[in-house]
Design a protein that fits this description.
CATH superfamily of chain B: ACP-like
CATH class of chain B: Mainly Alpha
Structural class of chain A: alpha/beta
Order of helices and strands of chain B: HHHH
Structural class of chain B: mainly alpha
Oligomer: heterodimer
Mean pLDDT of chain A: 90
Radius of gyration of chain B: 12 Å
Largest sheet of chain A: 8 strands, mixed
Strand content of chain B: under 5%
Helix content of chain A: 40-55%
Chain lengths: 581, 80
């Protein structure tokens, strides 16, 4: 991106859009870094108007401290450089270089890092924080030649890494990956010394662009893909299993097939983090089953669901997998070594991300695996992530039995279902994650930053309920969130989402019933907006209203009770008194 | 030379979007309130992008109006 392009992007922001306030915390003149950061964030958030505030030159810690005193921004971008840790590490400094000053610097940097750490800790909860570790070179002040790391330089790096590890462990700050940045912005092409000395802005325009792009990724990350559908022959393993047999396909060094082994390890690791993995293969089912029984397979069969193996079109397999997962094509990646199969699936399922498995190109294969990690990677893995696949299997069994012989009523009666309402879970990461990724049962499609969410949850009369569910098929984990505020006998719901895994269990009815009871409200006003994807919620409302729901419609307690079917859940409540008196 | 003028006007429009077109040719830090040191550097970079030239920071102090930029760019074009 050039500066001209960045300026044009920032100027194209809708004037009446909701602002997205960013504080850029840096010790240098922010200049083009500010322009590029605004542009990259504007591209990521086209429906918002990005505004950037900055602090004083040379006062990174002061800027951080002042964040706590002013109105909180939506996000903070912190670009730490060596100069922020000791002025003598700044090329603009008049301070002397020498053995004594180097020793002083090495002794002082851990204290300076500790101060930054504490300043970050003191930023009140809400704004998302992204931080980049120093990207510029240290001045040539050490006694060794440049190709040798001195003990002082190593000590500085060690202090920095300790600081980074402590930050990452706390989980509050998203750290920029310095290795990945180095691929985009080589270390030798980052410092513009003349501009730095003349203006206080140290970065080349290219480096400012790349740094801003990565910070924007941390501050407004794209929604991770939820599932990967993979081919088998010459993708999950090397060889055509129907021709050579289950014992002859390979994925190891001995068979010169380690690329496939790496791919299996990646899928297994993603599955562990909650990414759904399925198989769509034109193949002999018996041979595939035998291969999945091999004990040396790195992606275990129990990590894969569903497995679609037959000789029909893969687009049909993908369609059935999406149905079993109950998610849209745009949340899924399809991996195959055949461009023709990729094209067939892409044509049938618009929005699906089709990725070629480049089996003969090792570097391209590594790039593909990194791309899969980028598309599916998560900041943290929750218990709910770990149980997602099992819960989908249970849902499939649930649907199978629900559509079997028993009447829906007797089936629901026999489920032994328990719904737990937790009124004190608003700041658990899974709650906001669910709100921001649910599409089908979503009141209005609105997405929230952590700051927005905190504001909503701390407003007068606020109510946030997180629901978890369990029945005889097993637990589904946290599957729904309702958030709003109570005032004068009216509950206004601003957000209401429910995972598609929890459909057809009357949990939505139980939610409204309990909300009426818990708030003693006589009516609920729904901040409803139809979206391209929230048809299931619209249908639910239509069943209660006997009409299409309108924006901001109201449902009285009596109208709800007259339409509410029999409910068989056992209901548990947690932290209601604690959260809402 | 008209081409340089037109392209330079586009650069000023990008950096000072609120500046009416008829006022661009008379633009300077005295006539454009938004023209501070940051805007001056941004303008320089936008002009570098547009004309594919590298402007020395030592020359920046003298490039303090539309007309001076135009003369500078015309001189560089003539000597190229």
């Amino acid at each position: 991106m050039t500066i001209t392009e960045a300026l044009k992007i920032t100027q194209s922001a809708p004037r009446d859009a909701r602002p997205f306030a960013v504080t850029l915390v840096c010790g240098c003149t922010p200049l083009h870094l500010q322009t590029f950061l605004a542009a990259h964030l504007q591209q990521a958030l086209p429906e918002r108007r990005v505004t950037i505030a900055t602090g004083l030159y040379g006062d990174l810690r002061g800027t951080l401290q002042r964040v706590s005193e002013a109105e909180l921004p939506d996000v903070l971008a912190v670009t730490l450089e060596w100069a922020d840790l000791d002025p003598r590490l700044d090329f603009r400094s008049a301070g002397a270089w020498g053995r004594q000053s180097v020793s002083d610097i090495v002794a002082g940097v851990p204290t300076a890092l500790e101060a930054v750490f504490l300043a970050l800790e003191r930023v009140p909860g809400g704004p998302r924080i992204a931080l980049s570790l120093p990207t510029l070179p240290l001045p040539p002040l050490f006694h060794t030649a440049g190709w040798q790391s001195s003990e002082h330089e190593a000590a500085l790096q060690a202090a920095l890494m300790q600081f980074a590890a402590a930050l990452a462990e706390r989980g509050r700050v998203a750290l920029l990956n310095v290795q990945r940045l180095a691929e985009d912005s080589p270390a030798g092409e980052r410092l513009d010394l003349k501009t730095h000395l003349y203006t206080g802005f140290p970065y080349t325009a290219q480096h400012a662009d790349k740094l801003a792009a990565r910070l924007a990724c941390l501050l407004a990350p794209p929604a991770p893909k939820k599932g990967i559908i993979s081919d088998l022959d010459d993708t999950l393993w090397s060889g055509i299993v129907g021709e050579v047999g289950p014992e002859a396909v390979s994925w190891d060094l001995a068979g010169h097939a380690q690329l496939h082994g790496l791919y299996q390890k990646l899928l297994a690791s993603l599955a562990e983090g909650g990414t759904l993995i399925a198989v769509a293969s034109k193949n002999d089912p018996a041979a595939v089953q035998k291969t999945f029984e091999r004990p040396d397979l790195l992606l275990r069969a129990e990590r894969v669901f569903p497995i679609e193996v037959h000789w029909n079109a893969k687009s049909g397999s993908v369609g059935r997998i999406l149905e079993a997962w109950n998610i849209g094509a745009d949340s899924v990646v399809f991996v195959d070594d055949s461009p023709m199969e990729l094209a067939e699936v892409a044509a049938a399922h618009p929005g699906i991300e089709c990725v070629l498995f480049p089996k003969d190109d090792y570097n391209a294969c590594l790039a593909m695996m990194r791309r899969l990690r980028d598309m599916c990677g998560k900041e943290r893995v929750s218990q709910d992530d770990a149980m997602r696949l099992e819960s989908l299997r249970q849902s499939a069994m649930f649907r199978e039995q629900a559509s079997g012989g028993a009447t829906p009523e007797s089936f629901l009666q026999q489920l032994g279902a328990t719904v737990t309402f937790d009124f004190g879970a608003w700041n658990e990461p899974r709650v906001l994650e669910l709100v921001n990724k649910t599409n089908q049962f979503n009141l209005n499609g609105r997405r929230y930053t952590e700051a927005d969410w905190r504001k909503l949850a701390s407003a007068a009369g606020a109510l946030v309920a997180a629901l978890s569910y369990e029945d005889k098929f097993g637990p589904l984990g946290t599957i729904a969130v309702a958030a709003g505020r109570v005032s004068d006998g009216t509950l206004t719901l601003e957000s209401w989402v429910m995972s598609c895994r929890a459909f057809a269990r009357r949990i939505e009815h139980q939610t409204l019933k309990l909300l009426f009871e818990a708030t003693r409200a006589e009516r609920i006003v729904f901040d409803f907006m139809p979206t391209a994807k929230n048809g299931p919620l619209r249908e639910f409302f239509a069943s209660l209203l006997e009409a299409e729901p309108q924006a901001g419609f109201e449902l009285t307690r009596s109208a709800f009770e007259s339409k509410c079917p029999a409910l068989y859940h056992q209901v548990r409540e947690m932290r209601r008194a604690e959260a809402h008196g | 030379m008209d081409e340089i003028r037109q392209r330079l006007m586009k650069c000023f429009q990008v950096v000072f979007p609120a500046l009416p077109q008829e006022k661009i040719s008379g633009a300077s830090p005295e006539t454009v309130a938004e023209w501070d040191s940051v805007a001056g550097l941004t303008l320089m970079n936008v002009i570098e992008d547009e004309f594919g030239v590298q402007i020395d920071l030592d020359d920046l102090a003298g490039l303090d109006s539309f007309e001076r930029y135009r003369a500078y760019l015309e001189k560089r074009a003539a000597s190229a």
